[in-house]
Write a structure and sequence with these properties.
Layout (H helix, E strand, L loop, with lengths): L1 H28 L4 H18 L7 H24 L5 H19 L5
Helix pairs in contact: 1-2, 1-3, 3-4
């Protein structure tokens, strides 16, 4: 159950951070204005809060593992929202990152 909770939190964190960064990008690069930028800043702050809810208490481990989730999530976001089509190297790289997430977060460790 803790693993499922952790995975859900990683997904929520990715949505908040990637979505927040995308909103800022849209506000600045696509000239959509301060409302988009402000919404992005709020979403980025929400990401920071969601990360604290992870069951593991080790900040470094959580952020290191989240990096892999961020890589895969960013490619997925680009596909869904911007019509980006990753090539095989993007997909292989994302899969390598997700294997790293699994090892960092869910490998058995002595108590």
């Amino acid at each position: 159950m803790l693993t499922l909770r952790s995975i859900v939190l990683f997904v929520l964190a990715a949505l908040a951070e990637i979505g927040g960064a995308w909103l800022v990008w849209q506000g600045v690069r696509e000239h959509r204005g301060w409302i988009w930028i402000g919404a992005g800043v709020i979403a980025l702050g929400l990401y920071g809060f969601v990360a604290t809810l992870q069951p593991d208490a080790n900040f470094g481990r959580i952020l290191a593992a989240y990096g892999g989730v961020f890589v895969a999530g960013s490619l997925l976001w680009g596909m869904v929202v911007d019509g980006f089509r990753p090539d095989r190297w993007d997909v292989i790289g994302a899969l390598v990152c997700l294997v790293g997430v699994g090892l960092i977060m869910y490998a058995p460790r002595p108590a």
